[in-house]
Write a structure and sequence with these properties.
By secondary structure, this protein is an alpha+beta fold. Helices cover 31% and strands 25% of the residues. Strand 24 and strand 25 form a beta hairpin.
Length: 824
């Protein structure tokens, strides 16, 4: 209970001091209570690279992504989730009921039943009514584990997708802790979806006449989706479900296994002690396998189930035989672990802040790689029904993958540039797996993002030959990679408005701004800053590709846009955001709403365009006006009636989404801007307050709700009645940019064309830190010493004991490792 501070003392000053002390004590008590609440729900196991969950009833399902790049499963801490092959839009294997109650259904479930008493429960805790006496689960890198105990039976289930088959492996280990023999019926269950999610919603009454589940002679169920007019029928796989233990029975018909007016909580087949042996030629399909396990006292047995895909009957038979090999599951799990150890082996840091160290070494790059794989396609918040590969999203996701897997980054760039037209613009998003027509709306920023990724790849690898690759244009013809990038610049140059800024076109990074440019006259001041950032890279790319003659044009264009940004773009205390169709500026103190926008302030510094005094003033305004205890708001004040009550700029409620929320993606650029200004304490404040578990501790678990180990896209802002509610976690551009902000700007270890630039910008209280970083085939063991408690400024760098001039450590192609000592 909060204590009343009491009346002010007659002395006044001592009373105020007492108030401050009481308030501080109260805040400290509240923070401790929130920390204790979090500890009751989850904990990090850093040595095991896991996060452990102690309760099943989290505020929302806390997800993990299990994938080998082709077969995928999104799985929650309580066992709910969805499996899909390549695309969740046309090859969704299982059903997941987004937004419906009960929450987090259905999933790949296991039921354990005592054959003598008939009682049953699930190691995932959900969905059976009977709950285990002891339970916990853990998310790791590409796997999720459940550990439970009930009726003297211990069960451990590890779900993962291995590298050797396109299948979800359910690795179940059972131990009999009783003095009596136990006979268990073990059921594995998955409700099959009808592949095409939107078609299933619209045409399921006809689709269900054309699907089948049949028994395969290799003791498996095979689900076939053969619906008329389906997309890519020749690429649609068969789905199989099998075990490495002999089957006792099975069901392929959901109604036979679940029953009427029942759910996954009380399947009739389990209550009646066994599956019916049903198959399906029309109806609602499922896969239910029953095996019987006899356990002697103290005995431990392992049973594996597999939910997988194969392209034809022969491939199904081969996959079944392969999966039943004695060491297949062990090899698959070891291969998964090896792949992640290799991927994350390119970077490791030791920091004074354990929360930051954990995030940077583990969960941030893990999340960023999943973003890279899935773009914004499917999550607990996104049904995976309309998004393919977003051009701007994916171009930014590449940035965090470049240091750890540059070849994968190159391949993604090639994919993106195949969506570029000869005039330089690109498709907004597209569907490489589904083959559908792309979304062709033209945005002022989309086509410019790729140059940032290409420059990063060149800096990481030193491979200028990449720039000379021939790549097709979407509307025919071919050009070198560099020519693609140049045409993007040319497109922006040829689409400028009356003030000289780039035209907004459909919108820029802030999608809601389509309302300011419906007449085609609106201009984006922010895109001018983005263009400037790109032009700085294009000068290097021009020289590296053998076109130094382009440099002067890029410099002249940069100076032109810089002059506009500092004149027409400056409002007095901050930079304006855009020019509307009617010629009025957006983001000015003259208006009552949407006076100041975060992106214009940060990118003025990122681009190097802001005059030095304006850069400082703009970021001071961010600190004074936009910053909150839970991150920086995207704009202020939120919009309700601007510019016209009948047609406001956004339909978002105040403090939500793009209307005054804490947009975490945009916060990353504030961190970078403060680092470029040398203000390490402020930069780190912005970084630390959005570390997910730190933000959750500040807000409280039930206020924050989303996962404490991955970034969210946004938090509801202070003008909302749900300030601190985290939204759209996992698949967000926050992950890539936060990794760049932390590694390349706070720790300051950034690849450049000449080598590895080291220029940290850290909190003044840090005495130093260490980083192991692989770069161009060499391991750089970097130690930074900060005895003067500086935020920024390299005093000396020594490489293997030899003093280095400047702060760029060159590549060492002939060495396997170097020792780098940095003094601030």
């Amino acid at each position: 209970m909060m204590k009343h501070p009491g009346p002010l003392s007659p002395a006044g000053h001592s009373g105020r001091e007492e108030l401050k002390k009481t308030a501080a004590n109260t805040a400290g008590e509240a923070k401790l209570a929130r920390k204790e609440e979090l500890d009751a729900y989850f904990s990090f196991r850093d040595e095991a690279k896991e996060v452990e969950f102690k309760r099943h009833d989290m505020p929302t399902p806390w997800m993990n992504y299990l994938s080998n790049g082709t077969f995928h499963t999104m799985l929650s801490h309580a066992g709910g989730g969805v499996a899909f092959y390549k695309s969740p839009q046309i090859w969704r294997i299982t059903r997941y009921r987004f937004f419906h109650l009960p929450t987090d259904r259905s999933g790949p479930y296991i039921y354990l039943q005592d054959a003598g008493t008939g009682s049953y429960w699930c190691p995932t805790y959900e969905p059976a009514f009977q709950k285990p006496q002891e339970w916990k689960s853990s998310h790791g890198l590409g796997y999720t584990r459940f550990e439970a105990r009930e009726d003297e039976i211990s069960a451990q289930t590890v779900y993962f997708v291995g590298p050797y088959e396109n299948s979800l492996i359910w690795n179940l280990t059972l131990t009999n802790n009783s003095p009596a023999v136990k006979i268990l019926n073990v059921y594995a269950y998955a409700e099959f979806g009808m592949m095409e999610f939107m078609r299933e919603l619209q045409w399921q009454c006809y689709n269900k006449h054309q699907v089948s589940v049949q028994y395969h002679p290799g003791e498996a169920l095979v689900y076939k989706y053969g619906v008329e007019n389906q997309p890519k029928p020749d690429e649609t796989p068969l789905v199989y479900m099998m075990s490495d233990a002999p089957l006792y029975s099975y069901d392929g018909d959901r109604e036979e296994f679940i029953g009427s007016y029942r759910s996954e909580s009380n399947p009739v087949a389990v209550e009646q002690g066994g599956c019916k042996g049903s198959t399906l030629l029309g109806g609602d399909p499922c896969g239910a396998l029953q095996v019987q396990v006899t356990l002697q006292p103290g005995e431990t047995r392992t049973v594996n189930f597999f939910l997988g895909t194969a392209m034809n009957e022969a491939e199904v038979a081969r996959a079944i035989a392969h999966s039943r090999e004695k060491d297949f599951v062990t090899r698959s799990y070891a291969g998964l672990k090896e792949n992640w150890d290799h991927y994350l082996g390119g970077w490791n840091c030791e920091l004074p802040d354990q929360d930051a160290q954990r995030m940077i070494n583990l969960w941030n790059p893990y999340q960023a790689q999943r973003n890279f794989l899935f773009s914004r396609n499917i999550s607990f918040y996104a049904t995976g029904t309309f998004r393919g590969v977003g051009f701007r999203d994916t171009a930014q996701d590449i940035l965090a993958v470049v240091p750890l897997d540059p070849e994968a980054a190159k391949e993604k760039v090639r994919l993106l540039l195949g969506q570029q037209y000869q005039d330089g613009h690109v498709n907004h998003y597209f569907f490489p797996n589904e083959g559908w027509d792309p979304v062709t709306s033209i945005h002022s920023d989309d086509h410019l993002w790729t140059a940032l990724a290409v420059w990063d790849i060149l800096a990481e690898t030193g491979d200028a030959g990449f720039l000379m690759e021939g790549l097709p244009f979407y509307d025919g013809g071919e050009g070198t990679l560099y020519e693609h990038l140049k045409r993007a610049i040319d497109y922006t140059v040829s689409h400028r408005g009356p003030n000289g800024f780039p035209l907004m076109l459909r919108s820029d990074w802030n999608d809601q701004l389509f309302r300011v440019c419906r007449q085609g006259k609106g201009e984006s001041i922010w895109t001018a800053m983005q263009l400037g950032t790109v032009l700085l890279r294009m000068k290097d790319l021009a020289v590296a590709s053998g076109h130094p003659e382009h440099v002067a044009d890029y410099e002249a264009l940069y100076e032109n846009q810089k002059q506009l940004v500092n004149s027409l773009g400056w409002d007095g205390r901050w930079f304006r955001r855009a020019v509307m169709d009617d010629g009025r500026f957006l983001g000015t103190d003259e208006h009552d709403e949407a006076k100041i926008w975060l992106n214009a302030q940060t990118w003025a510094t990122l681009s190097g365009m802001a005059d030095p005094d304006k850069a400082v003033q703009a970021m001071d305004s961010v600190r004074d006006i936009l910053d909150t205890e839970l991150g920086i708001k995207k704009l202020h004040p939120s919009i309700t009636t601007f510019p016209d009550p009948a047609d406001p700029l956004t339909n978002y409620n105040k403090g939500t989404g793009e209307n005054g929320a804490v947009f975490c993606h945009a916060n990353t650029w504030a961190i970078i801007a403060e680092c470029l200004l040398g203000r390490g304490d402020q930069a780190y404040k912005y970084y630390r307050q959005l570390i997910p578990n730190v933000a959750m501790e500040q807000a409280g678990l039930w206020r924050y709700k989303a996962e404490p180990f991955v970034y969210a896209s946004n938090l509801f802002g202070p003008e909302s009645d749900k300030f601190g509610l985290a939204n759209v976690s996992w698949l967000t551009g926050t992950a890539a940019w936060m990794y760049i902000a932390a590694t390349q700007y706070i720790m300051g270890i950034k690849p450049v064309l000449e080598g590895l630039s080291i220029d940290p910008c850290i909190p003044s209280e840090w005495k130093g830190f260490k980083v192991s970083r692989k770069f161009r085939g060499c391991l750089y063991e970097i130690s930074v010493t900060n005895s003067t408690h500086s935020c920024k400024g390299v005093k000396e760098i020594r490489v293997d004991g030899q003093r280095l001039e400047g702060n760029i450590v060159p590549a060492y192609p002939g060495k396997t490792a170097v020792k780098v000592e940095v003094t601030l």
